[in-house]
Amino acid sequence: MASASRQSPDSGKLPRGQACFSCKRRKRKCDGKLPCSQCSHLNIEDECEYADRGKRSLTHILQEDIDRLKNRIHYLEHPHEPTGENVVPLDQPHHASGPSHHHSATPTQLWITPSEPSRDLIVQLIDDFLGYSSEFGFFLDCARFRQSALLPFPIGHHSRPSPALLSVVYLWGLRLSGQPDLMTQEPTFLARASDLTSKGLSGNHPHKVMHTLQAEILLSYFFFSSSPSFKGRYHASGAISLSLSSSLQLIRSENHPPPGLLPPPADAVEEGERIHAWWAVILLDSAFAVGLYETPGFAHRESLSVVDTPWPLEFEGYAEGLLVPNARYSQTIHNFVNGIPTFDTGMSTVAMLAKASLLWLQADELARSWKPGMSGTAAATFSNDFTRLDGVIERFRESLVPPNQIPRPTPAMTRTLVVAHSIAHSAMVRLLSLFAHTDMLAKRRRLAAARLVLGIIAAVPLRHFRYVNPIMGTVWASACGVFLEEIQALNALHRGPPREEELNLRAFLSRAVVSISAFEMTLPLLRMDLIFLVIVADSS
Hints:
Residues 19-50 form the Zn(2)-C6 fungal-type domain. The protein is mainly alpha-helical. The protein has 21 helices and no strands. Helix 11 runs antiparallel to helix 12 (268-291). The protein is globular. Mean pLDDT is 80; it is low at 1-12, 53-59 and 79-114.
């Protein structure tokens, strides 16, 4: 984009008070370009707006929304007081441009009624969400979703996404906006989203099954990103049940008839959405079962050995016809975790992430099954399983493409591969933790894997990582824990001033904590851990 200057032709400097809204909010020096250097550096070019005479910015519109709601609340609480000129009826039309003394409805008011936020706010919420939707299990085609969501029809119209899905997307859009005045509306939007999702399968919306499944996944991530609450697991269970009842694990199955609950997909992209939906559920269940120290939901519902759905492609691959029309698949997960070669190699970034999460789950389940004093057949079986899984994880880690070497990368692909690498290394950390205290080789390998977990985030540009998959909080905390154990062991072994090895570990951990702290607002559960890690890493 060519930069348009707003500087004064006489002085060569930006006129006083004419910084863009983003720089004003951050109290940064603005150079007056469009986008300005500050916004370009932060990769938020779309937020670079100026106050032009006769034209209102989105910031002004939102502020007017807030003022209007405050006036309306005051009016409802004091109905007998004279009304001021700014108190207008709830159905006052919203003007998109030009000066106005009236104010559009705020998110809170609009969600008390069956209507939606204003058009401008809808666009902002959807775009804020779609920029990072890959981190929260969004499996639908982004371009198609955006186009249908912005159609000029009322909510509930069959040409638009279902009300349940739209409500959850708006909820996520509020959080991802980073704007306090919008984020304060979360409780109202959350109540609305939860209610509509619980009723998502009622009615006759043509996409109610897939859209309700998507809403369940997004709500689960929403709760998991705030705290490991039962609400997150509740919505994850809903997603698991709905995916199984829709037979999403049997797409293109070689051994089973086609799914019966869903109609045949309309085209290759819709089939791709269903494939991605299945693996989004697998990732959600596997990763958070490990992260929350719980039993995975599929353990009581369906054996993963009968999963026939192929590994997901990069999304544009479906439109390009890369999924062979008549190809059939069998035992996708079983073949992978047992190291059985197949023609479906699953090399997309999304497939890599799904595989990493499955290996992490396998390592966690094997570690939980170990008991001190095991002998006989149980010990032999455990030893064989350990050796097999160790080999599978090691080969998988070696096969992963570095995030900075992806052909035609997008920010979403880069983030996905970073998370895949991190989880794969974390799987090795979990597996080797069983013997790290008694086997020196296992101890060294575990530390090396933990170092890779913490080092990879520094190898990619942080401009792609304003938000990240919430499971990374658990991954980073686990890797930091390994470093803390090593530091404490060295400190106990050598009394007195720390030696070079310990100082190096502390220095590495300190640098890692600085990188991780950039995600403090995204991963609130890390906050106290970070404070503790900083104290330990910096202590002498």
